[in-house]
Each structure stands twice: as structure tokens, then as C-alpha cells.
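User: quick one, fold this
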Amino acid sequence: MTMMPIAAIALQTQPRSSTTPVKAPMTSASSQASGPNALFTQWDTNHDGTLSPAEFSAGWEKLQSDAALHRLHDQFVALDTDRSGSLDAAEYAHLALVKHAGASAPPMSAFDTDKNQRLDFEGIRQRGELSATARTEQHKRTG
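Assistant:
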């Protein structure tokens, strides 16, 4: 059986309006533990067998966030040249997000939660979660 990404399942068939819920595809119970069906189940927060536009949007945002975090972790591991499990200032400067931001990049100390002049991935992850929470709260206030 060919597994399709949840976005393909949601968008196949006919065009939908932004208020039309997406119905879950009918599948055997054995395939629901992984792949698109598991993702659908995670996104269907009220467990009604459909994804509302809000559920889809929240799920898609989380999926994108998780993918970005995974890419950042891979980059973190690749830049940890001394394999210490943390980045020093020279290694931090080679992160793509730091290079891209240039002079406006946050200093390493902004992520150095234990203030040991080294950056572990947990510090970056926690900072990212705090930033995402702040953006969500700001979005809620500004509507």
C-alpha cells in the first residue's frame, strides 16, 4: 500500500473551502499506528474523525516546526566538530541561522542557559519553544 503525506490526503479529490473539514481515510487498524493515519489522529484533537481548518492549521504548523527543529539539530551535530555535545563560540558562528542573521543574530549567551560559554542543543530548543509561544500569544492578541 502506498502511503501519502497527510497534506496530499487532505488536498486530493476536489478543492475545498477553508471551512470544509477533512475526513479521515478509511484504513485497517494495523496501519493506523504510523504514517499519515497516526498524524491524522494526532491532529484530530477533538477525535471526531475529521480535521477542522483550525486542527489542520495547528497540525501543519507543528509539523513544520518539528521539521525545522530536526534540521537545526542535524546542523548542530555537524558543526560540533570536537564532538563535545555542545558548541563553542566559533562553532556557533557557523550555524546557518547565525550566518543568515548577520549582525542581528542573537549572541550565543542568549541561548547559553547554564552560562558555561558553551551551547547545548537543549538551550536552543528551549529558546525556540519560548519564542514560538511568544509569537502564538502575540498572534492571539492581535487577532
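User: anything notable?
Assistant: Confidence is low (pLDDT under 50) at residues 1-18, 24-32.
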